[in-house]
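Example for tutorial group B:
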């Protein structure tokens, strides 16, 4: 039987579960994403027009994605954060979440950007498999000594001539 996940807009009472998933991810630990900090960030985002989606299995949060409209150069969508419960990696949760935000982003514009650390080769492979291209390296952007890779999925140019 295939895995069955329910995708839905994040509900406010899911914030602690999402924060736990993010905080337990070792990639995010280096960025000092502790549960309380994540809760504060998500509570603020919940009040905005940002896209916050969760993937549920039997009512339990298995993954989460946060997308912001027009966050890149004031014109393009940006995946601010995506996290999957480490016990549920390789089950299609991340792809489900990315496909959903790509569909939303595509209705608003032709580009979706994501940032990942240069040493996160698993994430880079994941995004490349989904059709993202490497745009370039941003050195020491978030943390000293940690380089980030900007990636983009595009469906065309911003302007139609």
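The residue assignment follows.
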């Amino acid at each position: 039987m295939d895995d069955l996940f329910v995708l839905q807009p994040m509900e406010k009472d899911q914030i602690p579960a999402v924060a736990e998933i993010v905080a337990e991810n070792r990639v995010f630990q280096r960025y000092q994403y502790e549960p309380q900090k994540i809760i504060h960030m998500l509570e603020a985002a919940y009040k905005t027009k940002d896209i916050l989606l969760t993937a549920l299995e039997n009512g339990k949060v298995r993954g989460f994605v946060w997308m912001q409209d027009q966050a890149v150069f004031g014109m393009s969508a940006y995946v601010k954060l995506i996290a999957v419960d480490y016990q549920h990696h390789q089950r299609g949760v991340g792809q489900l979440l990315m496909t959903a935000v790509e569909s939303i982003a595509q209705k608003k514009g032709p580009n979706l950007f994501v940032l990942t650390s240069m040493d996160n080769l698993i994430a880079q492979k994941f995004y490349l498999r989904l059709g993202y291209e490497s745009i370039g390296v941003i050195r020491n952007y978030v943390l000293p000594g940690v380089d980030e890779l900007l990636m983009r999925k595009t469906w065309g140019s911003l302007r139609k001539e």
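The two ends are 48 Å apart (CA to CA). Compare this with the pattern of hydrophobic and polar residues in the output above.
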